Amino acid sequence: MTTLEQEKLLLKGLAGEDKLAIEQIYRDNYNMVKSLVINNNGTIDDAADIFQEAMIVLFEKAKSDDFELHCQIKTFMYSVSRRIWLKKLQKQNKFSTSSDSLEETIPVEEDVENHEKKQNDFNLMEAAMAKVGEPCKSLLEAYYIHKKNMSEIAGTFGYTNADNAKTQKYKCLVRLKKLFFAQYKFTS
Length: 188
Fold this sequence. Notes:
The chain is mainly α. The protein folds into 2 domains: 1-106, Orthogonal Bundle (Rna Polymerase Sigma Factor, Chain: A), CATH 1.10.1740; 108-188, Orthogonal Bundle (Arc Repressor Mutant, subunit A). Helices cover 79% and strands 0% of the residues. The protein contains 9 helices and no strands. The protein has helices at 3-15, 19-38, 44-63, 73-91, 99-105, 108-132, 136-145, 150-157, 162-187. The radius of gyration is 21 Å and the shape is elongated. It starts with a helix and ends with a helix. Mean pLDDT is 81; it is low at 96-106.
């Protein structure tokens, strides 16, 4: 099932007040909204409020028959949450612009496009990681995601020393870059 199909099912579930769909949207998006709010003078309580308001906006849109989402739910939630948070900051005088110039200061369309591009790049990298094969996938994850040092990787993967592990990591990285950029050419 593609991401687009999954997103449509989640929206349909949300519109039908399906508990599993609501929980999935929450799991997929809450931490992003929390980071947005906390990194911009907010608290965890503020983040919960903003997320709830954004969920209500998405719920009302999902119930509308003529609503068609042209981006990922994550992008929509980020954009709506950001707009709601900026308006709240403005009311609290923590963000000093007039409401007329708010759109000029933070062009939401540009923000959505940037977020969609980053999400697309992430999806391409995820696909490239799936194609890179083993042991490269596990080795790169151990180094870049789990932050293991070369000595630990050498022990885990059976290399004679850290230098051999480093050489293998380099070869895997070159292969991953080739896969990523081969896909990137076709989607750009």
